[in-house]
Design brief:
This protein has 173 residues and is an alpha+beta fold. It is built from 4 helices and 8 strands.
Length: 173
Amino acid sequence: MVRIRGAVVAAVWAAVLAGPGAGPAAAAPSAAGGPPAGRGGPRTVLPAARPVGDRLEPAIRYALAHLGDPFAMGGDGPRRWDCSGLVQQAYRRAGVRLPRIAADQYRATKRIGRRALRRGDLVFWSRDGRASGVHHVAVYLGGERYVEAPRPGSGVRVSTFGRYRPNAYGRVG
């Protein structure tokens, strides 16, 4: 079990660090000049994430190092997490101090639009579009992917906007 988890974590790490569109299925366009074919037909190749530099990479690496760790309400590590606990501890590794609660983390960021998202930004889910309605936070990886501690019964994972789309976005100072 530990070896399998380690192999899965290593594979996800390699895919995340390589960026969107990397890997065997995206290696070459089809003979017809369209997108590369993978299992189940053509595959959309996402654009590479715009680099933020190295400033927030320690936060991203820390969050990704905890893939598979279980969710725990109020969890702030070292091996059990809720969404805001994971974000707070990850950004601490990059020298960024954030509050503990997701709504307060949203208040502590600069609001940005979805099109302005960069690797290392935070994505939020709000019931009413305001800070008072924020109930979830995750770290944006680029290519419409983010790392999150989603809910009880799930572990820390990489998800996509296609699975659960955020409706608020913020950038740390």
